[in-house]
Amino acid sequence: MKIEQTHTNSANVELAPAPKTAQKATKKRLSAPSRFDYSEAARLKRIELLEEQCGQDLDAIATTDLDGLNLKGNIESYAGSISIPMGICGPLKMNEKGETEELYIPIATSEGALVSSITRGALAVSLCGGFKAKVTRKRMYRAPVFTFEDIDHADEFKAWLEDNFNTIKSITKKYSNFADLKKIKTTLIGRNVHAKFIYECADASGQNMTTVCTWQSCLWIKEELLTSKINLIEFFLEGNGSSDKKVSVGSAMQTRGTYVTAECVITEKVLKRILKTSSTDLINLYLRSLPITRLEGMMGYNVNVANAVAAIFASTGQDLACIHESSTAVLNFEKHEKGLYVSLTLPSLVIGTVGGGTGLGHYKNCLQAIDCAGAGKVERFAKIIAGAALSLELSTMSAICGGQFAYAHDKLGRNNPKDQLKTKDITKDFIKENFSDLSESLKESETIEHDVKVNVENGIITEATSRVVNKSLGFTALEVDKEKQVILKSKPLDTDVIAGLAAIAGFADSDIRRKFLKTIRDNEFTKCHIREIEAYRMVSRDFSRYIPTLHGTYINTQKEAYLILLENLNFSQVELINTEASPELWISSTRELIYDAISKVHTSFLSSEEVSNSSLNLGKTKVDADLTKSIITYIRAQRYISAETESKLEEILSNINKWAKLIDEGPKTLTHNDFNPRNICFKKGRPCFYDWELSRFNSPYRDLVEFMSFTTPSEEIASDIELFFEKDGIELARNEKLENMLACSYEYLLNRVLFYYVGHSVNEYVFMPHIFNKTLEIIQFIEGELDA
Asked: pTM higher than 0.85 for the full model?
């Protein structure tokens, strides 16, 4: 600011009209409302202006749930709001003042894999007791520059500032209740003095309040120097010495914002089980990457702290322009007696829990969710950000070590799907015009609406697939005529299912993932998107009493749409649903009802040409020996099985040609092939079988062995087998049935149960140890019977 000039608001300066010739040549400009008109009419006018400018409807930004009248001071020319998807990461354990709490952290991002990566790191941290964090400094700067007649006057001003510090501090207090001026640090460069005003701002980030306080101080300084011997030529409120919204060494070393450091110790067991790496490998990667960091001149050392900082800033109303300076970080790995010591320091985290956007609805709710809204919360907020960023760093570094990094990003966030059918496209008219096998109740319905109040849990396959594709998959609840509940099931492609399962395998072992993907065109998941539709159509004809009511199906290969409309199994009307981890509930009389029902289905489709000629016929029994060997080695390394069991599995695998032939040449029928209490319940006292995506033309004893592995007590294995043999309607001698069932047990063990164990190492399946051991018991019993 020139001392002899008067400060003028440029917004009030009138410009001379353009010459007439220029006016004629200029295209008529669109007219926008005043920047400070926050009415709804003004907002819609601004949207209209943008639509006129581009010649397109902008419906997605035309609606908003914010009230413009509440946004004064946050934005000008208010036109609407932008939605960013919000997810929750965690739980993450934080240790604070001798107490431990588990936190779920809301973050806003459109980057696939980010929530999953933070959550994976948080799981590792939490399993090892959580993290601790300390805040050591909170500061905010404004750095005006003063220009003097010469270097002598400038040097004299430095001493003058020091003498008048208390007076300047008292002036700042008049303009803010939070900004507390602690120090003025000066730097002399020629005849210029850069004066860094250093404040503490309580729970506000403080950028606006320090600007006002410093400006008023500069005005006072200017007036005082007019009567002194120090000849001030001019001053500027900001001389770029504060590093405002810029990364700098000064901000990192002296702290602009909040200085926070977090630490944790990760055990070797958790590193291996959850992060699929070791302390040795992580430290090796860390040391290998440090030299290039220095050579490139990077500030500090981190992998992707900015991802966590940006996502939390976006969800909590922080100043997004400060993301890069707030993401300056120092990650440190050290060997520890338990495994790995990890620390992460954020020296310039520019955050606030009051002021700015923190009081607006969505942002305030996200801060409230982690108990960080309002005064007295900024230190807690800094610690939570540090903990989330530490979790992300740990997960990402581990993924790079283990080879999962690129794969997770490719599958979790980078797909480019076709023009697919969206859930919102499923309307009453669409259903009536396009669904085949449509039930009479839906044909005659007056309304079919989406029911957002109902949440239906997806199965393992859909859940795995949803991690890797950007498609609408799984269950959507619909309400028919305001009273009847139906479920729309959207099927993933078989290739998507395999990619999803491979993603889980990749988090366990990259070699297993690679070998599993090699089987993509020829494994038990092949054509699963079609098989379920065909199975429901066939079973519903004569055995509708044993399945949820089928209301219709729809297939559109171009849009990759494979849909099934089913009765919604109301939890108040069904029993024993989702009881895969509760075998004690499946008493002998209940199991007998299951055997009776499924045997009727099996008998009806025994040697059926319809099933044999359908997608359910996957050909000969297959077990990929190379893949299975890798899985056996992996689960042995995880100590899930003993050396003796490992030898047994290898023995079964070595004889695959012999026992697979028994299945291929034995009796075949329509089997469920995923026949366990995750897909079985009782509806009105009668067995109900659902989720037929893995159904196939197979031996009926395949369904028997899987169901028994989940439900049959050891002492009742013999009686259950005999009971089923009595009902199966197959004209084979007892030993021939036992041989076929043994072969099915081998196939189930190698193809399904072992793969479950891989998934179990990533996402714990509580039923897993039980069904593995029970399958081995069944095998031991049958082998004993055949040897007798």
From this structure: no
